[in-house]
Amino acid sequence: MNSKANKKYTVMWPTIFIAPFVICFLIFNLYPILYSFYLSFTDWSGVGEKVFVGWGNYVRIFTKDKTFIKSLWNTLYIMILGFPVSIFLGLIIAAFLSNLKKFRNFFQTINFLPYITTPVAIGLVFTFLFDWNTGVINRIIEAFGGEGVNWLGNAKFAPLVIGFMIIWKCTGYYMALYLAGITSISEDIYEAAKVDGASTIKTFFKITVPLLRPITVFIVLTSVIYALQLFDEPNLMFNVSTTSIIGGPDRSCLTMVWNFYDVAFGSTARLGYGSAIATTLFIIIVIISLIGMKFMNGKEEN
Fold first, then answer.
1. How confident is the model at residue 244 (pLDDT cuts 50, 70, 90)?
2. Is residue 5 a part of any domain in this protein?
3. Which domain of life is it from (predicted)?
4. Cα(first)–Cα(last) distance of the chain, in Å?
5. Please, where are the H alpha helices in the chain?
6. Which of 40, 73, 91, 116 qualifies as a FRET site for 169, CA 20 to 30 Å off?
7. Sequential DSSP letters for 254-297
8. Are the CB atoms for 39 and 216 separated by under 8 Å?
9. What are phi and psi of 52, to 5 degrees?
10. In a domain, 290, yes or no
11. Strands 51-52 and 42-43, how do they pair?
């Protein structure tokens, strides 16, 4: 009897504790994903009947929708501008702080603060810095005899501002990850390298960087996923600026998620087509995640 009662409680109580999470996940996560996938096969504005169009939305995305293709290239361009530099700087700063004895916590905090700053504040700060008429950057350029640049109104310079914003925001986060990895490396390895006469630079490239490879792969993978979901930075930048242009000048900062948001919830409100864009983005992220996980597992096996 006691055995049956114990088995009953062993099954019942874990089920009771996990039930709230499972219920919330099904209602607020899984159901919206499945419903969005269903909507992607329809032509629906959010009001009225849904018209089933089959694969028509997906065919249009890759054959007729130049805005989607432009948003894809914009996203990749901004990603290349910002993330490689921030990852490299994060590694360098982490290596510097790992050898710092005094004020390490202070510098860690200073570098990490931008990452936890709210997107609205970031948009306001960078608009204040790069505004054509009152921006601090232009005032500095003019002080040295140069001519102010319309950073937020020029299609060539606007993506650079977004890239710089990403560098400013994410470098501290990557620094924290790399610093955790460096501190976990055994000091005996570095002592052996010193005995063999290895220089600081050679030790960094031959020991530190290779041993941080799993963290680097994780950072690159999560950075690509983050870049594909980029929305807050460019949207807030051009919503708080005087341009208020969807996608920035010549739509040079229109990312995939911003394009989805504009299509699904903008003036046209094409929820069916917007769901197709969201599903396409979801599939791209899943494929990249699977490739990254396989790459990480392959490195661990080696």
1. low
2. no
3. Bacteria
4. 52
5. 2-25, 31-39, 56-63, 66-98, 104-116, 119-130, 136-143, 158-183, 187-195, 200-203, 209-211, 213-228, 232-240, 256-265, 271-301
6. 73
7. --HHHHHHHHHHSSS--HHHHHHHHHHHHHHHHHHHHHHHHHHH
8. no
9. -75, 125
10. yes
11. antiparallel
Specify the 3-state DSSP secondary structure of 55.
coil
In 3D space, the residue among 269, 221, 226 whose CA is nearest the CA of residue 46 turns out to be 269
* pLDDT at residue 301, as a whole number: 53
* Residue with token string 């088995």: 7
Q: How far apart are CA 44 and CA 143, in angstroms?
A: 54
Rounded distance between C-alpha atoms, residue 278 and residue 274, angstroms: 6
Q: Is 20 part of any domain?
A: no
In a domain, 6, yes or no: no
Structural domain that includes position 276 = 57-301
pLDDT of residue 242: 46
User: Which DSSP symbol is given to 156?
Assistant: T
> How confident is the prediction for the chain on average, in pLDDT?
87
Overall domain count for the chain = 1
The pLDDT score that the predictor gives to residue 241 is 46
Instruction: Say if CB 188 and CB 134 are below 8 A apart.
Output: no
Place of tokens 């220089």: 199
**Cβ count within 10 A of residue 44:** 20
Give residue for tokens 């999470």.
21
| Per-residue model confidence (pLDDT) at position 193 | 86
Q: What are phi and psi of 230, to 5 degrees?
A: -65, 125
Q: Which of 276, 267, 262 lies closest to 74 in space, CA to CA?
A: 262
Beta bridge partners of 52: 42
CATH number at residue 92: 1.10.3720.10
